[in-house]
Description:
Blueprint: H1 22-36, E1 45-48, H2 52-55, H3 57-60, E2 65-68, H4 70-81, H5 85-93, H6 98-110, H7 115-130, H8 153-167, H9 176-190, H10 194-198, H11 237-246
Parallel strand pairs: 1-2
Amino acid sequence: MHPSSSAFRLKDKLVYASIQGAEAFWESVCVLVARGWGDPEAVKVVGGDGAGWVKTALEYFPSAVYQLCRFHLTRWIRRCLGWCEERLRRALAARDDPEALLYEAGMAVLKAPGPEEEALAKELVVYLAANEDGLADYRSRVRVEGVKLRGLGAIEGNVDKKIALRMKKRGMAWTRRDAANMLAFLGLEASGMLLPAVWDEDGAGEKAHEPEARTKVAAQGEGAAPVHMPVLDSGQPLAKALRRFVAPQWPL
Length: 252
């Protein structure tokens, strides 16, 4: 927790991002979790937007509990019941009561004023039914003695700030190969493992003094012209890692 605010920071954060299929993705996550969080008794919670591949995690972590992301739940309720202020208000008020929420969604179907509104309300019912096992807050199902459990809002925040902002915003477009490479870098950076991953194998993390001026990086091929990549001079961790690959002679 930050001493001057009520905000909390995740401890021992691990971020893994890739464009693998669900099976390969969760197998990779299993390996990373076993390496970093070896305690088999640790409470595991799977949070997601309702996509089927996310819930596949329960096959790899049988003791885990699933919770539907409250941000996505709220967005679905607003999209499907926005046609009636009263129905919307009642459904939002029932978000933490699965039985009451399913009831309100069902009533919205019955009370819909037209076919379009009815179709939207039915979409909500289907969505809620598919995620019924994740509607209840995980803190109502899990108890850890002496520990105050926190909500899962950090998941969506990290997806947005650590991954989506770089990969999806500002009109970004990627080839599969480039996307896979960038996701690997972003995951390492967000987990605080980027620089150790590219430092010398002996683990010596001391940085040499930066040269006062750098020459342009020349391509080592016949007829190739010297080029310069401004991003390499930014001083950010990702830039320093890229610099090691582009020009190993540059110190970190």
